[in-house]
Amino acid sequence: MLKSKTFVKKTRSGGVMKIVREHYLRDDIWCGSESCSECKQESTVLQRDACIESNLCPYAHYLIPDTNVVLHQIDVLEDPVIRNVIIVQTVLQEVRHRSAPVYKRLKDIIHEKEKHFYTFTNEHHNETFVEREPGESANDRNDRAIRVAAKWYSQHLKTSKSDPDGLKVVLLTNDQGNKEKAEESGLLVYKCEEYIKSLIANPELVDQLALSNDDKNEITSSKMLFPEHLPLSRIQAGIKSGSFLQGTFRASRDNYLEATVFVQGEGEDSTEGLQNLNRGVHQDVVAVQLLPRDQWVAPSSFVLQDEGAAKDDDAEEEEDRVLRISAAEAARKPTGKVVGIIKRSWRPFCGMLNVSHIKESTRHLFTPADRRVPRIRIETRQAATLAGQRIMVAIDGWPRHSRYPNGHFVRSLGSAGDKETEQEVLLLEHDVPHQAFSQAVLSFLPKMPWSITPEDMVKREDLRHLTVCSVDPPGCTDIDDALHCRELDNGNLEVGVHIADVSHFIRPGNALDKEAANRGTTVYLCGKLIRAVTMFFFDFIRMAFSCIWEMNHKAEILKTRFTKSVINSKASLTYAEAQMRIDDTTRTDDITKSLRGLNKLAKILKKQRIQNGALTLSSLEVRFHIDSETHDPIDLQTKELIVFVCAMLSFQHTTVHLVIRETNSMVEEFMLLANISVAQKIYDEFPDCAMLRKHPAPPPSNYDILLKAAKSKAVEIHTDSAKALADSLDVAKVDNFPYFNTLLRILATRCMMQAVYFCSGMDSDFHHYGLASPIYTHFTSPIRRYADIIVHRLLAVAIGADSTYPDLMDKHKQSALANNLNYRHKMSQYAQRASVAFHTQLFFKSRGILNEEGFVLFVRKNAIIVLIPRFGLEGTVFFDTKDKATPNLVFDEEGPTLKVEQHTFCIFDKVKVTISLDDSNIQHQKIRMSLIDPVIPGVSVPAPDVEPQAKKPKLDR
C-alpha cells in the first residue's frame, strides 16, 4: 500500500516548490515470535517460553521499551537477564538521531542471538503506522506510534492459534503521561524502575538503573552550591552576540579547581574555583562568559597531591586562595565562568568505590581513575562486594545543590591491582577499541591457502626478479615494508620501497574496513598489542605497492614512479644482521650490495635533510623484560634515542629498539622519502581530498621554558625556524656536563606540537616543521595505520590501478576521518604511556627504596620534577608534604627557580633522590621521590644504609 503526502516549500529565491513524499506500507511484516502461527516468517527471534522471573509479571512476556528507556537504561538492557525485547522502528530511529554511542550499543545487543532482541518495522506495517495529527508534536506522535505497536502485538499474539493463552506484552516507559495513555488503552505498562525492582533472577540489576530527574530518592540540600545553567536558547543568542564563548571544557590533571576551555580559533580561556567551573565535566562542550579583566588569574604553578577525603554536600567550599596567582607573579590569562552546558560528553568511567562510613547505607561515593573527573555519588546494595574492585559508573545528572554528580553502577571489572583488570581499565579509560574481531570482520579476510591469481596480475608489475629484502627491529611481526637498490645500465641507481598492499584486501565499506577505520591505529602496550587490522602476512611472495626512484650517486631524484606489484623478498633481516652484512667486506652477494647502495644514499639524504632544517631531538625509551610465567616486569632497559621529531610523533622504526645503527637510519630515510613522494603525487592528483600529515610550528610561547633553561646555563637557543633551533641545539654544550645537550633536546621535545592528519581541501598550511618538508603523508605502514590505507587508495586511483568511491572524493568526510584518526592516535599514545607507568610501578613494587641520581627537569611553586636517566623515569619531589612542616619556599617564575630554605633549585640541577612505590592509594599508586642530596636540614631524607638485594636493572649503555 502506498501513502503519499504533498506539501509546498518556499525556496531561497522566493519561488514555491511542490514536494511529494511517498511512504510504503505492507501487510506481510513478521512479528518475529516463535508462538505465532499467523505470520509466514522464515525465522523467529522472540522465544515462545519468554519467562523472566518477576513479581510483577509472573508469566511469559515480551518487553517493549520506549525511546527514553533505551537512551537512559541501556546498561540495564545489556544485562543477560533482559531477553525477548521488541525494539520498534520508531524507537530505533529516535535513538539513532539522539545518541550515536547508545545506538551502536543497541545494534550490538540486537545482533546477539542469546538476547532475543527483535526489530519490528512498525513504520511500514499497515496496521501500526500512524500519521502525525494536526497540532501534535513529533515526540507525542512517536509515543503514540509505540503504544499502537504495543497494542497490535498484544492483540496479534492473543489470537495466535498455537498459543491460545497468549503471551503478554509489557510496555516500559518512565513518562507519566505516556504511561497513563497506555493504561487507558488497556496496555500492560510499568515504569522501568518498578519492573527492574520486581526481577527475582538479578536483584542487583537495580544498581544499574540510571537516576531520572524526578527520582524521589535524589539527594537534596537547602544550599545551592552552583549557579543555574542558562537555557540553550539564551546560550545560542549569547554566542551569536559575542557575550558568550563556546568551547571544550578541559579539567586540569594537577589542580581540581582549575580548567581551561578550548575555543576553536581563539585558543584557551581559564576557569577556576568550584562555582566558576559550574558542574562542567572534562570534555563537555560549554558556554563561557569572560570575567572582568581585574578578575583574571594565571594558571597555578602548584602541583596538588592527593585530594584527601571527599566532602559531603553540606561542607564548606574548599579554600582556594593558595591556588591563586597575582598579576605581579605571572601574566594573567583570560578567565571566565561556565554559564551553560551545550553538550555533555559523559561516558562510563572506571574507578573505585569509597564505601560510606554510615552502616548499611546504600549511598556511596565513586572515585574515577581519571583525576580530571569529579567523584560521583551512586546508590548500590553491593558495597561490601564492590569494595576493592575496579568498577564502571555512569553519570546521570548533576543537580545545583550537590557537590558531586549523581550516577549509577554499570559493571565490575575485577580486583584492583590485578594486571588483567588494570590493563582493561587502561584501555577503557583511553577509549581504545580492543574487543576481539567479530566473525563479520574476519569473514572478509583472504581465504587460506592464499595465492596470487592471474586476475591479480592484470594491473600489477612483476618485480619478483629484484633483490628485495626487509630490515626490521628484532622480534618485529608487522613486516609490511621492503627495499631494493640496483645499478642501472646508464650508471644511475634504482631504489624501491615496497609496502604490503593491504588495501587490495580491505575494500571500502565492508566490515573489515569499518573496523579498521574505527580503530585507526595499532596500540603498543607493554606485553600486549591491540591491532588496527587483523594479522595476515605475505613475507616472501606478496602483493605490494611500490614507490621506485631513479637516482644519481648524489641521491638526486631523476624519476619517480608508482606501481602495484608482486615482489619476492629474498631475506628478512634485523637491523643488526643488515649492519653486519654491510660491514663485512668479504661479502659481495646481491643482497649485501643492495644494502650498501641503500646505506650510502641514505647518509646523503639524511645530511641534506638536516641541512634543510630537519629537527633531531631526544627521547628516553623504556623497554621491560617480562617474566614468561608471571608476566611481571623483572628487568628494564633505557636508551637515549636521538630521533627526528617526526619519529617521536609516531614512526615505527625508532620506538621499539634500543641500539641505534646506520641501518635504522637507512630504513627511516627511505620511508620518509616515500611518504614525501606519495604525498606530492596524491595532492597533485586530488588537491581537495588528499589525506596528508602536517606538523605545525610551535607558537613562540611554547619555547619559554626551553629558552629559560638554556639561559640558566649561559647557552643561547634560537627558535626563529626549525633550522635555527637545530643548529643552536647542535652547538649547545656546557663544560663538565656531557648530559646537558641530551636534557636540552628532551626539553625541546616538550615544546613541540603534535603532528596531525588533515584533508588538503580543508587546510592551507601543509608544512611539516620537524622534517622541514613542505608536504608529507603516511604511506609506509598500512598494517598499523588506517591513514596509510586511505593514502594507498588515493594513490591507486591516481595511477589507474583501482577505482574510486564517493567518500574518498568527499573532502568533508575525509576531514571527519582525519579527526577520528588524530583522536585515536592521541589516545593510543596516552594508553602506551599509562602502560609504561603501570609496569614501572610493578617493577618497583618489590624493590624497596632505591637511591638514584637525576636532573631537575621542571621547577614548580612547591615541587621539582626530576628525571632519572637510568630508568627513563620522571617523578615529583614535593616540599609541602603533609607529614612535616612546610619549609620556607620562594618561587621565581622568571628563573624559573625555587628556593627551599637556603638552597635554590634550577632546571638541570643534579640531585640525588630515593625512589619507592607509594601504594597507600590502591587506585592511584605512584612513584614517590624524596630528596637526599643536596642536603637541606629538615627537608632532605637520609640515604638508606642498605639497598634491597633485589636484582638491579641492566642498563644498555
From TrEMBL:
Its main location: cytoplasm. PROSITE patterns: RIBONUCLEASE_II. GO terms for molecular function: 3'-5'-RNA exonuclease activity; endonuclease activity; RNA binding. It is found in: Cytoplasm; Nucleus, Nucleolus; Nucleus, Nucleoplasm. GO terms for cellular component: cytoplasmic exosome (RNase complex); nuclear exosome (RNase complex); nucleolus; nucleoplasm. One of its GO terms (biological process) is nuclear mRNA surveillance of mRNA 3'-end processing. It holds the Pfam family Rrp44_CSD1. Gene3D superfamilies: 2.40.50.690, 2.40.50.700, 5'-nuclease (3.40.50.1010), Nucleic acid-binding proteins (2.40.50.140). Its cofactor is Mg(2+); Mn(2+). Residues 460-801 form the RNB domain. Residues 61-180 form the PIN domain. It comes from the Eukaryota. InterPro entries: Dis3_CSD2, NA-bd_OB-fold, PIN-like_dom_sf, PIN_dom, RNase_II/R, RNase_II/R_CS, RNR_Ribonuclease, Rrp44_CSD1. Keywords: Acetylation, Cytoplasm, Endonuclease, Exonuclease, Exosome, Hydrolase, Magnesium, Manganese, Nuclease, Nucleus, Phosphoprotein, RNA-binding, rRNA processing. Belongs to the RNR ribonuclease family. Component of the RNA exosome complex; within the complex interacts with EXOSC4, EXOSC7 and EXOSC9 of the exosome core complex (Exo-9). The catalytically inactive RNA exosome core complex (Exo-9) associates with the catalytic subunit EXOSC10/RRP6. Exo-9 may associate with DIS3 to form the nucleolar exosome complex, or DIS3L to form the cytoplasmic exosome complex. Exo-9 is formed by a hexameric base ring consisting of the heterodimers EXOSC4-EXOSC9, EXOSC5-EXOSC8 and EXOSC6-EXOSC7, and a cap ring consisting of EXOSC1, EXOSC2 and EXOSC3; DIS3 associates with the base ring of Exo-9. This is Exosome complex exonuclease RRP44. It comes from Collichthys lucidus (Big head croaker).
